[in-house]
């Protein structure tokens, strides 16, 4: 079983019946049109703990939106409030333009997949898939059509007569997803559905989920703390911290132009390189300066700067650090190689630059070894600068 509230003081637990009844059954004609979801000025308070405050989120019809963040950031709480499993303190939730803030879960036309499989152990796969339809009085022919359709999508046909105990973890999660598909809902909600699987199964099911979204064209909202899942699945992703959305955009946008230091360091493996220094403005030019480095950043469109000397942090992704002679005409820096990690198609090179660790993802065949002193440079087209005090992007 899984907690309905992530990072909160409550400890409500979902039963298989809760999962089965989390959404209403759509018309027998087929899959409903995907719905947009609009969250406005949402506040959720659990006891004395304010989990979410003044949150806005717009999910377009047919999008795959991922809520990404560390444990306790409020992402599961937000998902469960959309599902109607948590009462909101203030604000509104609309689905397909209809106010659903206080509607029962069964009236929201949603389907929810939890982290735990929550399958009935005594029922076959076929009966697990059809359970919600049977208790809602759906005609037998319609049940058969939907179960057949879902089992074909998820390659469950040969498993329909098996019990959950006879299935692997990946197969059980397919059944849980299939149980959501047969509901033919307007919005599909996923609460870390792959976190209980091993790495190989996560990769396989992640690919299947993406293909499933392409086939269904459905609106999907997916919660995870895994940045790889977020980057590969999302059409747009919301990075959350402390109940606040730090940035909402496409994976490429969020990765390349993080709004603040938290987003910059949360995304990426290895994490973004950070160097503290000063942004100096003089005679119309801008330079990032440290005790050992002076880098011309005049080409960047800075916002209005409050002073001509601003403490800031330079950020650069590991793949934008080039190691080797002739790596740049703009920088002439050298550092000691402290560690090399071979990764097959690339290597991760760690540099000691005046006591600061700089990491590079290197795909060249340049011969280097631990202990060498190597030239390095930043790709100046892909650096970020942040205000040191507030962390905001400059």
UniProtKB/TrEMBL annotation:
Task: Tell me which Gene Ontology terms the entry assigns under biological process.
Answer: carbohydrate transport
Alphabetically list the UniProt keywords.
ATP-binding, Cell inner membrane, Cell membrane, Membrane, Nucleotide-binding, Transport
Which Gene Ontology cellular component terms are annotated?
ATP-binding cassette (ABC) transporter complex, substrate-binding subunit-containing
Q: Which residues form the ABC transporter domain?
A: 37-267
Which InterPro entries does the record match to this protein? AAA+_ATPase (IPR003593), ABC_transporter-like_ATP-bd (IPR003439), ABC_transporter-like_CS (IPR017871), ABC_transpr_MalK-like (IPR015855), ABC_transpr_MalK/UgpC-like (IPR047641), Mo/tungstate-bd_C_term_dom (IPR008995), NA-bd_OB-fold (IPR012340), OB_MalK-like (IPR040582)
Q: Which Gene3D superfamilies match?
A: 2.40.50.100, Nucleic acid-binding proteins (2.40.50.140), P-loop containing nucleotide triphosphate hydrolases (3.40.50.300)
Name the CDD domains for this protein.
Answer: ABC_MalK_N (cd03301)
Identify the PROSITE patterns for this entry.
ABC_TRANSPORTER_1, ABC_TRANSPORTER_2
GO MF term set: ABC-type transporter activity; ATP binding; ATP hydrolysis activity
Q: Which domain of life is it from?
A: Bacteria
* SUPFAM superfamilies (UniProt xref): MOP-like, P-loop containing nucleoside triphosphate hydrolases
Q: Does the keyword Nucleotide-binding apply?
A: yes
Record keywords: Transport included?
Answer: yes
What name is this protein filed under? Sn-glycerol-3-phosphate import ATP-binding protein UgpC
Supply the gene name.
ugpC_4
């Amino acid at each position: 079983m899984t907690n309905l509230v992530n990072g909160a003081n409550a400890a409500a637990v979902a039963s298989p019946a809760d999962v089965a009844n989390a959404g209403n059954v759509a018309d027998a004609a087929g899959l409903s049109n995907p719905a947009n979801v609009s969250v406005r000025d949402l506040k959720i308070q659990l006891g004395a703990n304010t989990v979410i405050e003044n949150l806005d989120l717009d999910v377009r019809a047919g999008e795959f939106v991922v809520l990404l963040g560390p444990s306790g950031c409020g992402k599961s709480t937000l998902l469960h409030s959309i599902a109607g499993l948590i009462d909101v303190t203030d604000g509104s939730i609309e689905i397909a333009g209809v106010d659903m803030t206080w509607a029962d879960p069964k009236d929201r036309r949603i389907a929810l997949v939890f982290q735990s499989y929550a399958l009935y152990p005594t029922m076959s796969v076929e009966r697990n898939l059809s359970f919600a339809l049977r208790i809602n009085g759906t005609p037998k022919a319609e049940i058969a059509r939907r179960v057949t359709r879902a089992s074909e999508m998820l390659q469950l046909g040969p498993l329909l007569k098996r019990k959950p105990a006879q299935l692997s973890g990946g197969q059980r999660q397919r059944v849980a997803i299939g149980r959501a598909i047969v509901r033919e809902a307007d919005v599909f909600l996923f609460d870390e559905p792959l976190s209980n699987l091993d790495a190989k199964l996560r990769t396989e099911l992640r690919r299947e989920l993406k293909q499933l979204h392409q086939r269904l064209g459905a609106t999907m909202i997916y919660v995870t703390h895994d940045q790889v899942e977020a980057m590969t699945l999302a059409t747009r992703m919301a990075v959350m911290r402390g109940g606040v959305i730090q940035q909402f955009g496409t994976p490429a946008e969020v990765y390349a132009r993080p709004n603040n230091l938290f987003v910059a360091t949360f995304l990426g493996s290895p994490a973004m390189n950070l160097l503290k220094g000063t942004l100096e403005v003089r005679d119309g030019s801008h330079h990032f300066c440290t005790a050992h480095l002076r880098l011309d950043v005049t080409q960047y469109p800075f916002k209005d700067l409050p002073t001509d000397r601003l403490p800031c942090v330079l950020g650069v992704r590991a793949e934008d650090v080039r190691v080797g002679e002739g790596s740049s005409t703009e920088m002439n820096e050298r550092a000691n190689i402290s560690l090399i990690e071979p990764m097959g198609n690339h290597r991760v090179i760690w540099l000691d630059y005046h006591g600061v660790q700089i990491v590079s993802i290197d795909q060249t065949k340049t011969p280097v070894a631990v202990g060498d002193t190597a030239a390095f440079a930043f790709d100046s087209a892909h650096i970020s600068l942040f205000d040191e005090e507030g962390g905001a992007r400059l």
